[in-house]
Amino acid sequence: MDMMKTFTKEDTQNGAVANSYDNSSSASQKRAQGICIEVSMKLGCIVIFILATLCYINSINGSFVFDDTEAIVNNEDSKGKTPLTKIFFNDFWGTSLNHKSSHKSYRPLTILSFRLNSMFGGLNPTHFHLTNLLLHSICCTLSLIIFATLLKESRPRLSFVSAVLFSVHPVHTEAVSGIVGRADLLCGIFYFLSIYLYAKHLDAGSLTSFAGSMASCTVAMFCKEQGITVLGVVAVYDVTRSVSGTFNLGNVIKRRDILQRFCLIAVVGVALLYIRLSVMGSTGPPAFQRVDNPASFADSMMTRALSYNYIYSIHALLLVWPQWLCFDWSMGCIPLVKHVMDLRNLGTMFFWIVTVSAAVRALFSPSQRQRKFLTLGLALMAVPFLPATNIFFRVGFVVAERVLFIPVAGYCLVLVYGAEKLWACFPSCRYSKLLILRCCLLFVVLTFGLKSFRRSLDWQDEGQLFLSGLKICPLNAKVHYNIGKNAADRGLRDVAIDRYEKALELNPDYDQAMNNLANLLKDLGRFQAAESWLLKAISVRPDFAAAWMNLGIVQALLRKHKEARMSYLTALSHRRKYPDCYYNLGNLYLELERYREAEEAFRNATLLQPTHVLAWTNLIVMLDNTGQSQRSQSTALEALAILPNEANLHFSLAGILGKQGQFKESERHFLSAIQLNPHSPIYHTNLGVLYHRWKKFQKAEQSYQRALSLDPQWKSAIENLKLLQKAKQK
Length: 730
Hints:
disordered N terminus
């Protein structure tokens, strides 16, 4: 029974999309009616938009998690703190593309969207998540239009079902609920737009539509590199649309119009690849570590081949049954497949049998309808996935749910077509099978939708996200590392140490875990153990600048001043712009009473990071303590011009002015410091000292009493209050 009007009608002359399907009574139409709820295009778009929004509505309550911190919170490009042009010369993480440590991911338009979020809403994660949700809903709505456009020649009524499945698929969660997934969302929107405009070009021969399609491809690529693969998808669509009958390369070659379009597509593709490789910088491709993608570092070609193919089958499994979702699949999550007799190869064989069978049917099936569905479905699954295969270049991950954002569209087409074929296998019992198929469809939609909703809850908070990963990949050292890091941030040192040690048990060469564990041990006063772990970290990665700096800090605490200095200088040789390292080097020189070198180090820290409060403070105090009060005062004023709301700077300047007898100005800065930080007992105590010297004994007593109310054991306040009381008795 038809419930509503359908949403496209094929024009017999040019195949243009109109308002409703025709009422053909062909067998394929009847099969389609059996499994699809027929709706108008406008209503269908509204339903898809609402459905996509509901599945991930709880993501707007999330915070910045996992990679969001590096890509947004710690990225000056995303926060708008750098010139706009910088986004075209830095990678996705804010590092110069010419730097040897650059990730080489070039997504300037995605960074621009983060920048706009920051401009209008600051670093409020709700605004970022809301934008992601809106983009996802738009992309899902576009998927309905794309499915209807791609399949209109065979007059299907399955586009709506395909779009519903695309909208609720749980594998989208990482792209929607993780803010950095915006790259995939933006890429998906312009990917679909490129396909739509290319189809319009084939309909009407409009060069404007062709140019729009190529422009959309360009925008998609600058949102995420995967966008360039749309050229392959439209090429496949062109062949399926323009050539009838089973696949024959000769028929394609004979068509001059197809060859002309392919030449133009090739020119655009080569130009985009040239641009992409040009911005790569002088340092070449990114230097990933073994832990990021163990299979690509395997010495044996057989191990690489078996492991790669097994990884492909895992990605396919996530499309079919997205039950096992994890924020990170690196390290030991998927052990290498080293032998032909490994039972996991059975899964790989099954994957390739199904894939090759589908490809053969797509090319040589006598049914044009079957060829169209399978060809377009497989193209949408395989072509966007090509950059993740490790065939053309090494990638920095093992399995990544985000790379499946567009391939899901192809899977949904194939799945819905399979359901239609299943319907056709049972010509009798029309109404009973109609009920069964629609119930199955409803079950899949509800299962996927609920899974998406629940999975997005995991992405609201880093603690939940990392623990969810532990259930899926207990052998992944990175999961344990992230749980430890999150615990350390919350002050749970014992939990953090335990998780870091577990990570190192699973991966003895995990240099970042060594570094973080050493920092915790240093804070606990276990300096020898901390030094040992840091020495291991730099032996694993000799250019690990942070580990070299932390080693210098520990060695300074162990009074190994010469070694500490060399560690700091080594860190700076690996990372020239390292303000924290200059600050710590300055502290070392200060301890050694090498004041000129200390001043130079502190100055370097403030030049590289003008907001480095600790470097400013130590420089001011050092100048004051070495009898350079005028320089100390001018330095404090220089710092306050940059950081007018920094309490510690007001406090330091107040002390200098007080020593010079400028009591009124000193009082003003003490009061400014207290206004900015009213809960510091030392601020109230030193204000009391100022009043004490100024002979304002009542105000002095009040300041001492406030300090003691904040900390009853504050020694200097107790002693000064006693002196004040004795003075008053005299």
